[in-house]
């Protein structure tokens, strides 16, 4: 087995036994990236030198018998919206194309403390807004299973580099399905933890009450290990859960006894691809064979999930993205040209005798804001800022934002009720497999429906996971979506491990 | 003031709370550092940074709320107030909107000169929020350039909003004085207006008297840019006249025009229209998803109330009732702050004469502080030393006039009153010596004796003058008594 094919767990045992060094492993990954990333486009930046230096440092520590972290010497990819001190962090936006944060996010610090080797920053939809990574202003990412197709999004680069076996571990973020949907499209494992399980400090916010950072990998074991390394209370994040962090990697191989699985009636209706449904139903029968009991359940407010999500997320985003105004950092329009144009406009209005027009003209400051933001943000980001600005406006707030908060509570209550009778809720991650690049770019609503099954977990704050569970007749991976009560990531991981022991879908790899 | 209208005044006061660090990060709040040296990713609003509430700031807010008789609800939350301005790096200010940390309180104001009747001014709410930075406009070299200092960004502010209960500039000033005094007694803010620790905006309009049973209200104006309480008083007085003139000219009432903002020009002593902040009409408030709501238990509020220091209003009453000094005197002392109150009380207890102690504190001590531009705690004569001087007066070892000379000497000397008196040759004149002096003077002034016998008392004044020339240490009161006594026998 080539080094790039190995899981993190396998690599760690080889590193510990001295069979390989971290420098060798890192080189293998960097070679693989060099060979295939031209076609895949998973990375916005590869940090060869830094990665190799870090790998060499871990090798030295290991040789000297020093204490090592949980991921010592294992290459990791990071989605490009986690602030990394001294490294450009772009959010795949022109706005932050040259932004170098003066500090690192808590998760990056935890990876460093775990002695992981960060090899690069992965592509994504701009500011994590999108389901295909096509909204990136800085690069195109393609699905390794078929490069005519999208990898999903917004963590498209994060999923694609795993599927293409460029790294064994990759960090994603998930606001409405952004870890799970690309994991499903690329045939890898992705877990969105409970809201508050992983610190958001240093994560460039899209929608603060929904965003979660989470692990992506190729196996349940690796996912457990990775989650363990990044979780934990953070005093710098007031929304971080102050609870002890379980040792997921120690329990992942323990099968769940008497498992009760809930199937949501509403998830198997109109709009669900036939091949996807077939794969999901077969996956459920695998659990049945393992002794699980399958129960039909109803989440009556699930159908309002998308509507609720597309009010709450843009509202928060419109405020979170206000700071990108060209005044302090990030993109600023060319001021000389801007002032010249402003003067020309004024001259024209004066010549026309339009006094009111002159009075209503932008001040140079306002024009600088307008123009910097117009140039710096892409169309999807602008669309969501406008949606959110609208839904928070006086006169609309009660009808939209406040109402959405109420529905959000009902959605959460549906889950509370359901989890009284089942241990896990299982279904498709996305209604369809990966689609052709460009096929939905002109239809934002179709794109929003990609999140149909995933957004409610974010609205309820519960953990959810996607694991490979089969293929369509066209040979595209299908993801099985599993949801558990808050703080029960352990249950998801053990269920995933049970499934992966019985099947080999997760071991399938695309030919590049 | 005019008989034609009532002035309706409400005040919004922003107070910087005296925490060491900012409201949502651990940067220092110290005033006067070089620009942008007291900042971090959080108060700079860097992407990915998150706020964490400063418990101390909340505690100071709680203390103030209790002192202002405000109700503290069990649940309060943080909201984002969205607007664009270069000194607001996040594009929103973290504030409190519909569920503030305290609501519905009051404050008593009164005037010792009784120019208005004591009244209760309602307080609508007091809520916490973060301060913005400072824009500094540099017009040098013909090119308007703005520089931003974000040191102040994120400093905790308590915004205290009064009801429109004040009816004159004088009442407004009294409210501000009393509020500042309370905040100072509590130690929650240094209330330094020059450094911006206390900022006042005033909302004012007129209710014009007319035969129409419905009162006529002029449009509300918010006045900003007032740098002292005096400026507030003047700006309000100016604005009342301006609004009345405008109403007479245009007839516009509150129904015809929205609230506008005017700035006080202290040099010209006028208010001028101010440009509104862009988009100020809709701040799109919503709960800040980065911060957890704050829960305050009844026990916590009770504990704060229990631990509250004695407040100015109560001290005034105690000084008036307990020491028997006039209400006016009590007011003067209390307005000087807690150090003055303590000084007075110690002095009164040591001398046993509250009235005399109060006079000395109000007149002589305060005069010296003013002349020398000192704070009360810098006053050079300790209570112990001053009480020595006062006791000498009470024992008639020295008269009040000469005691003032001794007092002046004591200011720049470490010596006690008796030592200085000795140096100045001041000593009590014994009875027989005084008797002899009285006799001598009476014999030398037969005309005066005649007058005194005929009941012309003022004649004794000239005799005291003669006696003082012979012996400056005599006590004029005692000398007068002796004179009258002896004349009766003559
Ligand atoms: Zn700071």
UniProtKB/TrEMBL annotation, chain A:
Family that this chain belongs to: Belongs to the amidase family. GatA subfamily.
Boundaries of every Amidase domain copy: 24-493
Entry protein name: Glutamyl-tRNA(Gln) amidotransferase subunit A
Enzyme class: ligase
PANTHER family: GLUTAMYL-TRNA(GLN) AMIDOTRANSFERASE SUBUNIT A, TRANSAMIDASE
Catalytic residues as annotated in Swiss-Prot or TrEMBL: 79, 154, 178
Key words of the record: ATP-binding, Ligase, Nucleotide-binding, Protein biosynthesis, Transferase
Domain of life per record: Bacteria
Gene: gatA
GO cellular component: glutamyl-tRNA(Gln) amidotransferase complex
Taxonomic source organism: Blastopirellula marina
Record InterPro entries: Amidase, Amidase_CS, Amidase_dom, AS_sf, GatA
GO molecular-function terms, A-Z: ATP binding; glutaminyl-tRNA synthase (glutamine-hydrolyzing) activity; transferase activity
Listed PROSITE patterns: AMIDASES
Function as written in the Swiss-Prot or TrEMBL entry: Allows the formation of correctly charged Gln-tRNA(Gln) through the transamidation of misacylated Glu-tRNA(Gln) in organisms which lack glutaminyl-tRNA synthetase. The reaction takes place in the presence of glutamine and ATP through an activated gamma-phospho-Glu-tRNA(Gln).
A Pfam family the protein falls into: Amidase
TrEMBL record, chain B:
Listed EC numbers: 6.3.5.-
Record-annotated Asn/Gln amidotransferase domain positions: 342-487
Pfam families per record: GatB_N (PF02934), GatB_Yqey (PF02637)
Cited function: Allows the formation of correctly charged Asn-tRNA(Asn) or Gln-tRNA(Gln) through the transamidation of misacylated Asp-tRNA(Asn) or Glu-tRNA(Gln) in organisms which lack either or both of asparaginyl-tRNA or glutaminyl-tRNA synthetases. The reaction takes place in the presence of glutamine and ATP through an activated phospho-Asp-tRNA(Asn) or phospho-Glu-tRNA(Gln).
Sequence similarity: Belongs to the GatB/GatE family. GatB subfamily.
Record-linked InterPro entries: Asn/Gln-tRNA_amidoTrfase_suB/E (IPR017959), Asn/Gln-tRNA_Trfase_suB/E_cat (IPR006075), Asn/Gln_amidotransferase (IPR018027), Asn/Gln_tRNA_amidoTrase-B-like (IPR003789), GatB (IPR004413), GatB_Yqey_C_2 (IPR023168), Gln-tRNA_amidoTrfase_suB_CS (IPR017958), Gln_synth/guanido_kin_cat_dom (IPR014746)
SUPFAM superfamilies attached to this UniProt entry: GatB/YqeY motif (SSF89095), Glutamine synthetase/guanido kinase (SSF55931)
PROSITE patterns hit by this protein: GATB
Region of interest (Disordered), ranges: 252-283
Record HAMAP family: GatB
Keywords: ATP-binding, Ligase, Nucleotide-binding, Protein biosynthesis, Transferase
GO MF term list: asparaginyl-tRNA synthase (glutamine-hydrolyzing) activity; ATP binding; glutaminyl-tRNA synthase (glutamine-hydrolyzing) activity; transferase activity
Gene Ontology biological process terms, A to Z: glutaminyl-tRNAGln biosynthesis via transamidation; translation
PANTHER family: GLUTAMYL-TRNA GLN AMIDOTRANSFERASE SUBUNIT B MITOCHONDRIAL AND PROKARYOTIC PET112-RELATED (PTHR11659), GLUTAMYL-TRNA(GLN) AMIDOTRANSFERASE SUBUNIT B, MITOCHONDRIAL (PTHR11659:SF0)
Protein name (Swiss-Prot/TrEMBL): Aspartyl/glutamyl-tRNA(Asn/Gln) amidotransferase subunit B
Species per Swiss-Prot/TrEMBL record: Blastopirellula marina
Highest taxon of source: Bacteria
Basic and acidic residues: compositionally biased ranges: 252-265, 273-283
Assembly, per entry: Heterotrimer of A, B and C subunits.
Catalytic reactions of this protein: L-glutamyl-tRNA(Gln) + L-glutamine + ATP + H2O = L-glutaminyl-tRNA(Gln) + L-glutamate + ADP + phosphate + H(+); L-aspartyl-tRNA(Asn) + L-glutamine + ATP + H2O = L-asparaginyl-tRNA(Asn) + L-glutamate + ADP + phosphate + 2 H(+)
């Amino acid at each position: 087995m080539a080094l790039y094919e190995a899981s993190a767990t396998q690599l760690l045992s080889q590193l510990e036994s001295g069979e390989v060094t971290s420098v060798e492993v890192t080189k293998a990954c960097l070679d693989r990236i060099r060979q295939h990333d031209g076609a895949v486009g998973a990375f916005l930046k590869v940090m060869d030198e830094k990665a190799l230096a870090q790998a060499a440092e871990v090798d030295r520590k290991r040789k000297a018998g020093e204490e090592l972290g949980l991921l010592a010497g294992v290459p990791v990819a990071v989605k490009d919206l986690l602030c990394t001190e001294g490294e450009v962090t772009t959010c795949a936006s022109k706005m932050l194309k040259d932004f170098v944060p003066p500090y690192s996010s808590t998760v990056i610090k935890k990876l460093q403390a775990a002695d992981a080797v960060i090899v690069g920053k992965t592509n994504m939809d701009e500011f994590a807004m999108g389901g295909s990574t096509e909204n990136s202003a800085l690069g195109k990412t393609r699905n390794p299973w078929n490069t005519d197709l999208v990898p999903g999004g917004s963590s498209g680069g994060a999923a694609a580099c795993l599927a293409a076996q460029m790294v064994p571990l990759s960090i994603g973020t998930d606001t409405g399905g952004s870890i799970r949907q690309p994991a499903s499209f690329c045939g890898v494992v992705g877990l969105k933890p409970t809201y508050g399980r992983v610190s958001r400090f240093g994560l460039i916010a899209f929608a603060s009450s929904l965003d979660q950072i989470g692990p992506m990998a190729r196996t349940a074991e690796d996912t457990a290990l990775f989650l363990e390394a990044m979780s934990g209370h953070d005093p710098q994040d007031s929304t971080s859960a102050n609870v002890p962090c379980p040792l997921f990697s120690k329990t992942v191989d323990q099968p769940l006894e008497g498992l009760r699985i809930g199937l949501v009636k509403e998830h198997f209706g109109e709009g669900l691809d036939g091949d996807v449904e077939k794969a999901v139903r077969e996956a459920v029968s695998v659990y049945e064979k393992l002794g699980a009991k399958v129960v039909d359940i109803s989440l009556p407010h699930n159908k309002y999930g998308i509507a609720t999500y597309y009010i709450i997320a843009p509202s928060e985003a419109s405020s979170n993205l206000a700071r990108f105004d060209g005044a302090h950092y990030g993109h600023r329009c060319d001021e000389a040209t801007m002032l010249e144009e402003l003067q020309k406009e004024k001259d024209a209005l004066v010549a026309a005798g339009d006094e009111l027009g002159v009075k209503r003209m932008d001040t140079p400051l306002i024009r600088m804001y307008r123009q910097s933001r117009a140039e710096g943000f892409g169309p999807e980001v602008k669309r969501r800022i406008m949606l959110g600005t609208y839904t928070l406006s006086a006169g609309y707030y009660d009808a939209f934002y406040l109402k959405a908060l109420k529905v959000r509570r009902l959605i959460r209550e549906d889950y509370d009720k359901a989890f009284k009778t089942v241990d896990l809720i299982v279904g498709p991650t996305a209604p369809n497999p990966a689609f052709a690049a460009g096929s939905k770019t002109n239809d934002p609503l179709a794109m929003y429906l990609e999140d149909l099954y995933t957004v409610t977990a974010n609205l309820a704050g519960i953990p959810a996971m996607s694991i490979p569970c089969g293929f369509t007749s066209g040979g595209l991976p299908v993801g099985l979506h599993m949801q558990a009560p808050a703080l029960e990531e352990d249950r998801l991981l053990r269920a995933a491990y049970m499934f992966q022991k019985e099947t080999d879908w997760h071991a399938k790899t695309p030919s590049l | 003031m005019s008989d034609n209208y009532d002035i309706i005044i409400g005040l919004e006061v922003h107070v910087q709370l005296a925490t060491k660090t900012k409201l949502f990060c651990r940067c220092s709040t110290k005033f006067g550092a070089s620009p942008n040296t007291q900042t971090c990713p959080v108060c700079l609003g860097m992407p990915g940074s998150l706020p964490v509430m400063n418990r101390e700031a909340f505690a100071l807010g709680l203390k103030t709320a209790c002192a202002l008789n405000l109700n503290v609800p069990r649940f309060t939350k943080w909201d984002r107030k969205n607007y664009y301005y270069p000194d607001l790096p996040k594009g929103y200010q973290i504030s409190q909107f519909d569920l503030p940390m305290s609501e519905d309180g009051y404050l008593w104001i009164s005037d010792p000169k009784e120019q208005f009747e004591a009244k209760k001014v309602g307080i609508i709410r007091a809520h916490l929020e973060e301060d913005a930075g400072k824009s500094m406009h540099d017009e040098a070299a013909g090119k308007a350039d703005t520089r931003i200092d974000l040191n102040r960004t994120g400093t905790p502010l308590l915004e205290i909003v009064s009801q429109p209960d004040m009816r004159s500039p004088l009442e407004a000033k009294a409210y501000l004085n009393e509020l500042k005094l309370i905040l100072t007694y509590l130690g929650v803010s240094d209330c330094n207006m020059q450094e911006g620790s206390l900022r006042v905006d005033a909302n004012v309009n007129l209710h014009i008297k007319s035969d129409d049973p419905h009162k006529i209200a002029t449009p509300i104006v918010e006045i900003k840019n007032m740098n002292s309480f005096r400026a507030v008083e003047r700006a309000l007085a100016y604005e009342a006249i301006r609004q009345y003139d405008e109403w007479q000219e245009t007839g516009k009432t509150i129904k015809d025009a929205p609230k506008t903002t005017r700035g006080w020009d202290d040099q010209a002593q006028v208010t001028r229209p101010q440009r509104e902040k862009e988009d100020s009409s809709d701040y799109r408030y919503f709960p800040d998803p980065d911060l957890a709501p704050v829960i305050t238990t009844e026990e916590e509020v009770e504990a704060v109330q229990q631990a509250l220091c004695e407040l100015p209003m109560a001290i005034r009453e105690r000084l008036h009732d307990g020491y028997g000094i006039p209400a006016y005197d009590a007011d003067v002392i209390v307005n000087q702050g807690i150090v003055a109150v303590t000084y007075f009380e110690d002095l009164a207890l040591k001398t046993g004469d509250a009235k005399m102690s109060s006079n000395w504190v109000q007149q002589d001590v305060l005069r010296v502080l003013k002349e020398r531009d000192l704070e009360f705690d810098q006053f050079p004569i300790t209570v112990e030393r001053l009480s020595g001087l006062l006791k000498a007066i009470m024992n008639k070892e020295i008269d009040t006039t000469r005691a003032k000379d001794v007092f002046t000497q004591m200011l720049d000397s470490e010596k006690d009153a008796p030592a200085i008196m000795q140096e100045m040759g001041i000593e009590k004149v014994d009875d027989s010596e005084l008797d002899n002096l009285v006799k001598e003077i009476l014999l030398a002034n037969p005309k005066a004796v005649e007058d005194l016998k005929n009941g012309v008392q003022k004649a004794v004044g000239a005799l005291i003058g003669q006696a003082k020339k012979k012996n400056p240490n005599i006590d004029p009161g005692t000398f007068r008594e002796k004179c009258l006594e002896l004349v009766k026998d003559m």
